[in-house]
Structure formats: structure tokens, C-alpha cells
Records
---
Amino acid sequence: MLQLHGLGNGLSTAPLVTNGRTRSITAENLAGEKGQGGKAASNLGTARKGRPCIDLKQGETVTLAHIQGAGVLQHFWITVTDKTGAKGHQAQYVLRDLVLRMYWDDEETPSVEVPLGDFFCNGFARRSNVNSLPISVNPTGGMNCYFAMPFRTSAKITIENQHAYDIGGFFYTFNYTLVDELPDNAAYFHAQWRRERFTEMGKDYTILDNVKGAGQYVGTYLAWAALERNWWGEGEMKFYMDGDDEWPTICGTGTEDYVGGAWCFSNLKTNEPESYSTPYLGYTYYKETTEIDPWSGHQVPMHGMYRWHLPDPIRFESDLKVMIQQIGHDHSRLFERSDDVSSVAYWYQMEPHADFPALLPVQQRWPR
């Protein structure tokens, strides 16, 4: 059974004893070795919180975890500052400047390549709390992931510091189980980030494309900066699968509908958007136009939201493309609009995967 190989993480599997071996990687036990945790020394002596974190040098790529053998990554936790002490834009966007990558079974190109904040549904390089089943972000900036990530021969997780400065105090823990074997149908976890600073009028935004093979799509995160007046979220979510050409098999009814909200997320008393965060659906970040300082002027309205297809995965057999429209409403009619949209697609598929589009340079990832 699937849960007997370390893939189950629900209450129903808690009583089931298996032959899996639990391990954990931290800055004090870099290889997750048995009986080697917590040995580093501090001013209090040996094994007294000697190395709880690492520093990231500017331009450096650090391997956080390199695991050999078959297993399942079950949970990881990361926290880091969201801005460095220096002034100016270059210091403000740590969560977009750090790039998280994951490689399964010694593959050459990553199956996960996402700015750190966006992976944890913290787009715009700004912290926000998230209370969902696979992603949880807690005060202050404690970022947790519970997606099960199986691998058959190895797993490697890296972080690249593309920030303008060194970053001190990068904390992390990776919890995983080593197993003798995995089921043949255990697919590999993937996540991909994209952005269009100005979406093309009348053309749907591409969240994911060029996925070949069998798998299932399990989630979307959207960081949507509204560049025009009036309501921005009438666009429909589309899933093209298994040979779909002009028309998708699945087409939704609107952007806020896709993430489980309704009527512009509006609180009927205040007429302002109202945030929420649930196990599978959330609208967790809303920032209206606000003057922040004389040099920066005003920000555009920013909206962060997620949808997890865990009870209802989008299953595909040969190919998948995911898109969303940019359509607004001005209280009288629909209209085509152009906005600044960033996204993360989360899915499982059997390897090999197609190469991802080149990640945008660091300054082109910064929010407005």
C-alpha cells in the first residue's frame, strides 16, 4: 500500500508501523546521519545549539540536502530575513532573490526552480501567513512544506543567493524517510515559477506548458499585481490535457472562484477585500495602493492566492497546459486588461521532465 512506503502523512496512517528509517538534515547534521545530530559547540559547550543556521554569501549556491538511496522527503522548514540591513531596493527583495531548486535521481536539470518566497505562497517578496495543508507560513516567516516528494536513488536541494548582499541566519530542517523501495506509480514532485510583467491584452497567461507524460496537477499560487482600474479577477482558469487543441477540457468561471472565493472577495460591511486561508484555498495577501516613501512613490494593488488540487487532482495521461485569462469588470461590462502576473505551478509526473523556461534575471523578478 502507498502509505506503507512513507508517502502517507494523515491521521489514518499514524498507527501503521513500517520499516522506513526516519532522518533529518539540519546545519548541525548536514548528511542526516544516524546518531550524529546536535554535536556542534556553542559558548555553552558541545551539543548546546552550536550551529543552528548558515550564512549565504552573495552569488553562492549552497547544497542544503543531498540524500542517497530511495526515500520520501516529507516535511521541510526554512526561515530567513525578508530584507537585509542596507537601504534601497536591492535590500528589500530577499524572498525573490533566493532561488530554491530540487533535483531527483541525479537529474541534470531541476524539477523545482522557484524563488523561495513564492514557493511558500509569499509572493512580492513580502511575508504573509498561510494556513493550508501542504504549505504553512507562521509568525514570523516560518515557512513549512508538507508535499510528499519521493525519490528512488537520490535527492538534492539547493539554495542560490542572487541577492545583492550576503545573508546571515538561514535556518532549515529537512525531514525524510529512507525506504527499501517505492511503488511503481510514485511520481516525482515538480514546481515552476513564471512571470509576465505586462500580460498581453486578450492573450491568456501561461502558468504551465510543455508537460509531457503522465501525472497530476496539484496546485497553483498566483501573485497578481493589478495595473488597471476596476475589478481584475473575471479571468477563467483553463486546463488543456491529453491532446486538447483549441479548447480546454476544464474551464473555470473566474479567478476568485478558482481559489474558492466569491464576489471580488469583498466584505459587505467595509466593501474591502477580505483575506482567508483554508486547507486547500486561500486569498492570503492584499496590499492596496499605498505611499511608502518619497522615493518609491505608490505601489500598485497586489493580490496573493492559492488553490491546492489535493482532493481533486487534475490527472493527465500524455500532456498538460495550464492558462488563465486577464479579464476585468467595470461595474457595467467585461473588458480585456493587462496586469503583472506571477505564478507557481505544482505537479507530479513521471520523469523525465521537459526543461523549464529560463528563470528571469533577479531584477526582473522584483515586484513593482
Note: The helical segments are 94-97, 116-119, 255-258, 362-365.
---
Amino acid sequence: MSVKIRKSLVATALLGATAFASSNVIADPLNDVQKVGQQTQKAAQKSQEKIDNIFGQTQELVGEYRSVVDETELLKVYNDHVERLVMDQRAGIESFDRQIGTIEKTKQDVVPLMYRMIDTLEQFIKADVPFDTETRMGRVEKLRGLLSNSKVTTSEKFRQVLDAYTIETGYSSGIAASQGSLEISGKNINVDFARLGRIAYVAQSFDMKHAWVWNNDSKQWDALGEEYLKPIKDMIRIARNQAAPDLVALPIFGAE
């Protein structure tokens, strides 16, 4: 009986040892599989992180590339614009060069022209109705002196000559009055002068008893009848802003 019991215990012990050994044999491969799985998962995570980083960097590069492309297009448009400006400036410079080349020729033409214009102006004043003669002839002499002044530019000289012509043109319109004296039959008579453009130039004595009209054909003063005394008086008052503008009867020389 005791022998059988020992055998059973020994068998049980052997079975326990065998089971324990078998469990160790099975457990080791499972652990290895789990470790490999964990390592594989970590490796996959790292790979995904690398892929994400590379994708982000790629997107940044794509954005930078597009920005560079857009900037290049803008620069191309700007460069084309600048090129057109440069071409326009070159054309302007060439035009200026041509103009500069003709300045001396222009001066050679303008200077003789100004002398002729002044001579013509003087002849016109002498042939015109003799109002403000001293002032007008003084303007002519001033222009002659101006042409001899080396400190004044040719353009300024020409401008002042044109101004003198403009002033003379202005005398053809408007109404004006002044005072002076006339020599009639060897006597000096104080008179009021009145002028309506270049149409009529009349004079009336201070006592308003005598009146005259300038005859530009005969270059002398012609006496007027009494019927013109009041109209001329009215004309003088209108010219001095002492009366409102109105119709007046004046002696007018018709064209022949």
C-alpha cells in the first residue's frame, strides 16, 4: 500500500513538472509574438510620423513654389511695364535732342522776325488814330532796347513783343476818355477827348461850345456842328462811368 502511494506521488510530481515545463515552452513564443507586434506598431507609428512630416514639408514647398510662380508673373508684368516706360523715355529724349538741334536755327529765324514786328508796329501807330501816341511810341522804343539786352532770353523778348501787339489789338474795342489840348487856328484849346475803339475819336472844349472829330484820311481835326455837342458830352460821361451806357450819335467816316 505504501509502495503504490509513493508511485502515485512520483507520477503526480512528474506530471506537475511536465505541465510546468510545457507551460514555459508555450509562454515564451507568445511573449516573443507580443514583443514583435509592439515593435512593429511602434515602427509603424514612427513611419507614419515621418510620412506626416514629409507631407507637411511637401505642402510647404508646394505653397512656396506657387508663391514664387505668382511673384514671377507679377515681376514679368512689371518688367514689361518698365520696358515700355524706358522706350517712351528714349523716344522723348530723341525728340528733345532733335528740338535742341533746332534751337539755334529757331533763334536765327525769330530775332529778325521780332525786328520786323517792331518796325511794323511803329508804322501802324504812326498811321493810326493819334490817341495815347506818346505811350504807344514809348512802348515801341522799350521793345527796341529790350532786343539789345543780352540778359533777356529770346523767348522773353518775343513774349513782350506779342504783348505789345495784344495791347494794340485791345484798343480796337471799348470806350475811353482823357484830357489834353488842341491847336485850332493857332490857338491851344483845352479839351476832353473821347474814343470809341478806332471808329470815332472826338474832342470837345471845356466850355462844351465846340467839338471836333479826327479825320484819319486828312490827318486833321474837323469841326462839328452843334448837333454833336450833346452826344459827345454824353459819350465823355459814359467813358468816365458818370452815366450808364446808351446810344449816342457820333460822326463816323465811311469806307471809301
Note: The chain is about 65% helix and 15% strand.
---
Amino acid sequence: MVSVQQWTGREASALRAALRMSTRAFAEHLGVALRTVAKWESLGSETQPRPDTQAILDTALARADSAAHSRFEALLFPERKSARPADYETWTEDIERAVVCVGRQNFPFAATLLNRWLGSHDPHRLDDKGLYLYGRSLVLLGDLQRDQGAILGPLSARHSYLTARGMFSELDIPRRVAQTELSLAVVQEMSGQLEVSARQYELLAGDERLSPRDRARAQLWVGTALSKEGNNAYATNAMTAATRAFEDLGEPEDWSVAHQKLALAHRGAGDLKQALHCIDIARTTGTVDSPMQRVRLDTAYGHILLSDAATRNDGLSVLDQAAQVARQYGLSHQLRSIEGIRKGQQG
């Protein structure tokens, strides 16, 4: 973070530009006369603010967000560049590659792609484009950490998502902010904060910052959290509404996943016939064959089979297969879920 030892009109003008304020708005922001700001603009380094105004400028700089700091430094020191515009194209390509890797649960290579940028750039020295790419990279790192079960702590999905949300807020990108809040709600659910996450999902299900698809996902996840709490009747209603939304939106994969979630809610309510009907739909209509989705689907299927004494052995066999894939790809959260299901049956 750049600091100013002695303010002159040049630094004051750079701060105004970095904050993206007019001379009038900047004067009001600082609480000084408009003619004072005009003097800084016209005389530049030939004039120095009074000591009390120097302190006011120090405070204004300290309170500025990281994007403004980046712009301020770029204006004062144009020769300093932490990332060249040409780098951004390569960075964007690496983000796209990391998306594919995370989807396939190729976590080591995804981490390599992301950390080569996160580890080599100071976000405080990036311009808006660089800061956006940094935030995108953090979200993907959070997805990777979440899928591996690292959901809390300094090296966790929660920390990555919170940092990214702050960057998107500074950049004033409401859709990205809301998407990150949705990811944070998933982390809350995974950490056992079911009631809190259900409330957050419910708020986001009606949030216009999100796309219709993301709002439908939030609605589905309301049901997921409530189903885990045992409120299966309300959960089923929420999931059914989300399923219809996915059908209307023409989202077959989300529609299939919704049936998987519905199957577990029906199982929780004791309706094994409907649970088997829904899980059969999910197993025959899914189009994405990623390791994560296979484990989730087999875990749900095995859980339902375990609920009937006649199919208990089949259920254990399906869970064994799911656990093997989870271990192979480092899906520790899914593995813990499988172990929890087994223990529940033994109890």
C-alpha cells in the first residue's frame, strides 16, 4: 500500500482521480473549500496543503478501498506495473482451464494454474481488470478448497470467498457479489449451520442480482438444508418448485440434480417408493459425468437402498464404490458423508 510522506497538489489531485470524484465531490468528501481543490489541480507539486489538511488527506487515503489505492499508485508511479495488459489474456485463459480442472476434480493442476497468479501479484497494486481476475481466481480456489473439504480456517473456502466478495464489492459488480454470497451459504451448510444457511438461501432465491438459474439453485438448496434438519415436507415443496424452474429454464443437468435432492427428501419423509422413483430419474438423465457428481449420486442411491432391509447389502456395495472414488479424487467432505451414513445404519 502506497503512502505519502508530504502531500502536494500533485498527490492530492491523484487521490481525487483515484477516488473517481469531481473536484466538488472531492472537496465535500474532505471538508475543504472548492477553491482549495482547484488550487491543487492547477498548481500541482508547486503547492502544499496546510498541516491539518495533510492529515485529512492521510485519512482519506487510508479509508480508500484497494481498487482506489491501485489507481492512486498507478497515477503517481506509472512505471510500476504488477501485471501487464498482455498478462491478462493469459490469466483469463488459465482461469478457463482451472474451471475445467475443478469440474473434473483435477485439483493439483487447478491449484497450480490459480496460484501462479495469486502468488505473484499483490491485489493492492492491480488495476480494476487485474483485481477482477484476482477475485475470479479466488472464487475458483474457494471451489477447489470446498470440494476438498477445507471449508473453515485461514486456508479455506470461506476465507477465499470472503476475500473475493470484498473485491467484487469494491469493483461494484453486484452479480459476482451475490454469487459469492451463495457460495458462502454453501459453506455454512457444509459446516452444519443448517438453519442459517437455509435463511440465506431463501434470501438469495429472490435476489435480483442473481440470474434465474442461480436463484433456482438457491431455492433447491433451501430444501437441501431443511431436509438435513428433518423438515422434509417443507424441503420437498422448495425442491419441487426449483425442479419446475429448471425445467422452464431448459437446464437439464440442474433438473437431474434436483431429482437427486428430492429423492433424499422423500427418503427422510419415509416415502421410499417416491425416493427410488426420483433417484432413478437422476441416475438416467444426468449428463455430466464428473467424479464429484458420480460420488454424490451413488451416495444418495446407496443411502436410499440402506433404508430398506431387503436392499441393505446393495446399498453398502454402492457406498463402497462411492467411497473408493471419493478417496481417489480427494473428496474428503463426501467421504465423511459416506462414513456418517454407514455409522447411522450401524447405530
Note: The chain has a mean pLDDT of 91.
